[in-house]
Amino acid sequence: MSTRTIVLSVLSVAVLIGVGTTIVELSAPDEIRFSPAVGEQRDYRIDVSAVMREDDSQSSSSDTQAVTMQSIMRYRVDSARPSLTVHLDPRFIRAREGRQTFFSSARSGGLFRGPVRDLITGGFDLTMEPDGETRLTATNRAAWNLITKQLTGALGRQLEQHMLAPSVPLSLPAREGAQVTLDGFQGMPGLRLTVADIDEDSVFVDITRAEDGSTRVAPLRIMGHNLFIQFTNVSGRMRLERDSGWIQSLTLISDQRIDGFGTALNVHTQLAMNADDDPTTGAWADSLEWFTWTSGLAGVSDGYSLFLPQTDGEATDLPLIEPAEAPLADAGTTFRIDGKDNALALTIDHGINGDGKLGQLTLQELTLRDADGQALTIPLVLESIGIDYGDDDRQNTVIRLLPLGWADPGLERIASVDATVIYRPAEEPAHTQLSLADEPTEIRDGSVSARAVPVDGQPGHWRILFAGKDNRYYTYDRTRNYAGLSGRLIDQAVDGGLSASDRTLMQRVDDPDRWFQQYAVEGDGDTFGLALFTESTESSRHILHFTSRALRFSNRDMPPPETRYLDRSTTPGKAPLNLDDLAVRDADRNQLRLTLPRGIGSACELTASAPPLEGHELVWQPAFQRHPDFISETWTPDGETTDWLLMTDDGVRVFFYGIEVDTRLSCPGQPAWHTEPAPTPPDRPWLVDIAAAVGDDVDPETPAALFFRGTRFLDASGRPLRPMPLDASPDAPSTPWSREQMQTTLADYLADDGTIRFWGKVTAVETITFSGEPIERTWHNRLEGLQE
């Protein structure tokens, strides 16, 4: 771990513990009195992000380092008189550098070992005296003494100061406009609290840096170096329960300059704290990943490039995502245990492709069961809930949860999962345009808006500022031709010194669904296309049953763990099987190629008459049957036609010189596609009797590519399903069908009972049938010899 990461980790832990020590201190004045009952407890989600850049570097993301620390903290009131004592119990802590987790309470190892683990798992007691003095003591004093003894005396004392934090003996009047100045809140010097708004239940407080207060805190000594910390900017927003004084929501945004280790560092910190009595459930915005994604934008100096179509063709190739229809009607549901992160992952296979727009999915209830069907008590926190694209651009929803607590949760005991989800579908988006001009322009629809602001001194440059809600927002319209314009998703300070992610966190204190975003657009253009996405006001409730993904692989009587298709086509191939316009070509290149409608080469007889070459017969074979050493890596055999090549029977030679070849294609009649209901058991539609499906026994050594080009097994949507190998395993990497079919035969799929299991429910079998008189086509070609 780098020195900068260690610095940020220590600072983040200090802020994290500092939050715990001051939660009740702000709520102790006469007007807003902290008066909890003994035994009362509250759970909080605390998220801290620190983005560090050396000196004033803003040039690229490579100069930036971001550390995120997230926790679930429980506060329990143990006594009220004569002193108020609150026990702080860290139920979950995770720290990440970028996307890399370097410690987590959900898994063993890392930094949380030995006395550090003993210290944190024991928790802390916060004692508040009537005169406002506070004391924070570790429950495990032995672990605390051991840790501080291993550190230098100065570091131990300073770290203890950061953990204790000064008390805040202040009175916060319940009157709009009232101000209080304090020092030491969250380890920050000189802050001013202003009562901004009051309603029946809550008091809203703005937090700014006091103009006449100090900007420095005592230096922190780490690894033999003094770190001098100066706060250059602080702003925040807080919502308190009016009756009890408990914090409901808090956001603090700060900028610090840190001098030490021979360099100057600029750190931008975002802290969000929210009451959370059920961290297991919720939607995307309630997950740990939402904060990681939102704060992560601040760590990318140059932003993310937007793909803006530059031609009408590009815009046509990228149709606007359309709302998905009934994505939970027949969804496949499985779970697995991610051993790396010790996470429970629930997968919902919707059976829709990448052009289907899913609405919002909210996890409402979760029940874990053991092999006997008994409910398990394993506290969890929602890590993420969102789209994961599977094979062939299929959309799956994956819900990931991490265990709370520090002991082994025993996730391996889970045999099934019942989940209740609420689904709110997306509506058809509305299209509009935003003017790009020399003056600011804006479009607004209720609470959502988009505003284009020209950049001073840079003609042809604009910042587009979006304000929306989680369920209603503007974004760029990807069906629009943006010729001459380019754009990036950025997160830079605007309008009062706050970036889009800062503003999102700040305004969610008042409105938990608020959302802001920012684009940088440049080029030659006078309008920017936008689409307004809205989720329906109607919702539906679904109870889903998840079974083990590993069991769904091994047990053929169970549905497959997910749906997989042969190719990306959305409808079955029904191209006319016309044999009149066929022609053997490429003789001038000393090879012979014949393009046939899909399935004809295997359903009919294609032969060649030519002299052998060094003991090898010349035969017609599909191009994908060529020797593996000669297969083009860019070639994929999906589509309505198949290229056949004349080659030696070992697949090595495809170029020939000084020979004549006679080719004959014989079909027993006029070919046509024919569809029949699939011969499957009613209760297991993923198992197909292959002999019954094709009307005859099959040769197990038939190449998979050859067989499944002429015979396809369709699901209810008409898409061709992939066969499932007998040795399919959840641990095996997913292989594209274009590659798998060239490496397998029917024997790799055919069970002893003559059935093949498919990656989905088979409803129909599509084959080629013949009628009328036999058809024969012949060609004669001469391939010239090598030139002298």
Features:
elongated; 43 strands; 13-stranded antiparallel beta sheet; 12 helices; 788 residues; eight-stranded mixed beta sheet; mainly beta
List strands and helices in order, with pairings.
Elements: H1 3-22, E1 41-54, E2 64-79, E3 84-97, E4 100-104, H2 114-122, E5 124-128, E6 134-138, H3 141-150, H4 153-164, E7 179-182, E8 191-198, E9 202-209, E10 220-222, E11 225-241, E12 247-260, E13 263-275, H5 288-296, E14 304-306, H6 312-317, E15 322-323, E16 332-338, E17 343-352, E18 356-357, E19 360-369, E20 375-376, E21 380-389, E22 395-403, E23 416-424, E24 430-435, E25 441-445, E26 448-454, E27 461-469, E28 472-476, E29 485-490, H7 500-507, E30 514-523, E31 527-534, E32 540-548, H8 549-554, E33 593-597, H9 600-603, E34 605-609, E35 618-622, E36 641-648, E37 659-667, E38 670-677, E39 687-689, H10 690-694, H11 704-710, E40 712-714, H12 737-743, E41 755-757, E42 764-771, E43 775-783
Parallel strand pairs: 15-18, 16-32
Antiparallel strand pairs: 1-2, 1-13, 2-3, 3-4, 3-5, 5-6, 7-8, 8-9, 9-11, 10-11, 11-12, 12-13, 14-29, 16-17, 17-22, 19-20, 19-23, 21-22, 23-32, 24-31, 25-26, 26-27, 27-30, 28-31, 29-30, 33-36, 34-37, 35-36, 37-43, 38-42, 39-41, 40-42
Helix pairs in contact: 1-4, 2-3
